[in-house]
Amino acid sequence: MARILIRFNEDQVSEPIASQIIIEYKVPMAILSAHINSKGGEILAEVPDTILEKVVNAFRQRGVSVTVPKLIEVDSDKCFSCGSCIALCPVEAISLAKDCSVEFDKEKCLGSTCSVCVDACPTRAIKSIKQNNSDSANREKKS
Amino acid sequence: MKKLVESSGVEVAFKEVDVVTTGTFGAMCSSGAVVNLGHSDPPIKIEHAWMNDVEVCHPGAAVDLFIGATNMSEKQPYEYGGGHVIQDLVAGKEVELRATSYGTDCYPRTALKTIITKEDLNQFYLLNFRNCYQRYNCAVNSSDETIYTYMSKLLPRFRNATFSGAGELNPLMNDPDYETMGMGTRIFLGGGQGYIIGEGTQHSPKNLNGTLMVKGDAKKMSPEFLQGGAFTGYGTSMYVGLGVPIPILNEGLAKKTAIQDKDILTDIIDYSVPRRDRPKFGQVSYKELKSGSITVNGKKVRVSSLSSLKMAKKVSQTLKSWIDEGTFFLTSPVERLSTTTIFKPMRQSEEIPFVYNVMHKAVTCTEDEEIQAIAKRIVTKSVNHIVVVDEVGRLLGIVTSWDVTRAMAEGKKALADIESHNVFTAKPDEPLEIASKRMAQHNISALPVIDIEKKVLGIVTSEDVSELLGR
Known about the structure:
The complex is a heterodimer of chains A (143) and B (471). With 143 residues, chain A is an alpha+beta fold. Helix content of chain A is 18%, strand content 27%.
């Protein structure tokens, strides 16, 4: 599965673009989080690798921005593995390793759409990355 | 030791093990540092002082200061505080000192600004008056809102739990009768060597809540084991690494140091109740706490630690390596920690009002009543709020005189059209100040008072509050 961040602008929100693509490509897209209103919005979704390229192209053909988001940054110099964040995470992306180090699963993390752990870190080691449109769309191709 | 006692028994363990090292690394708010600055020219008798914009105390004569770990920066409150200042000094960083004074004949100077590092200080002692709690509570939140506490962020309706402490690795837990600990015991403190100088404040040995007062030369400590911490909505603190070596003087100590997480129990406490005695939801062992989930009220709740077990292990292992290398020598205490001290609550000569002091009977209605009837009741009872209840008196909603007026203006007839279901409430034993804050925060003028089953016990209004305060 690959994670993509789909961003709609003001003109696109009135169209059922995501639904059309889901039906057309029969893609079992798991929506992890979505924030959309009349001014635009974003969907964080998971798509099977086999169909990823087609889905990304379909969105882009309709003028919708698709990026592979970097969702979280953890400063390992600041983190001393207290674990305050672990039980807060709604998707269990944070866990304690065998040596009691706190580990972040960046594949599971919901990033700025969630951020529940960020203000609970006593050393402010966690940063959820706010996505913006200048994020290179080419990053998609590298993955 | 734990494994050895289990596999070979206490007798063998006593013969084979000389010392058990322990360790903990957690937020210890009652920490701080004493610094002596030396005299400026012309000299100043400091009255107020700030280090990196964190106000520090002036407990002594002219140039002695105490940096309290929880004092917050005036420019970055909740993010940077005394604990961070201490960490920065320990790390060798430059710290800005500002001071003011009223000026005297012998100390004429009235203002001072300078940059200092730890090398510039005559003395820089860590002096922590309560560290190393033997065990600590597990915190949960039963309310409908996220709360920010010194036990970190607690999500509503038991969606997470937090705990603190190293459990079986905790120094005091391994010597619960304090046979080897007391004034003069040399310890690992903040990455350097320090001493226990007595029982900590709030020491409560009979409840297995012993604490330590400790001191050490902060110039020789490490910023890895002394770190500032920020608790959103609560304030700043300092994480302290502390380890105590326990000489195995007898078989009893061999047995005691074999203590395991499963044997250490602590209370699950509801931090949403803003009282000294908060409701408890039973007990839980450190083994369960470290497993990542516990059961509260029959519900599975994910739990995580606020103190670092990884760092606690590092403390005890570092201490062990120092002893092995011959750079750390054990001492015998000159006076053991008390096993009888009692921790008393505060004597309060002035009572504060609680919700039950001012609440009065609520005027109620049921959902099948017509607006006309409710309007009449508002007039005859001369109230502004009607509480909607079910047949057994449980809260369903609230209707205000304004809602009724609006219904008349808009021609609405059904109660359902005007009733608010999202009702903010109060509990009878809440301090009135907290209930009053809730009203102000949500811009409302009354709170139905309910019990745990949501039965309406009464109502408290903003008029009740102002009447009481106006007296």
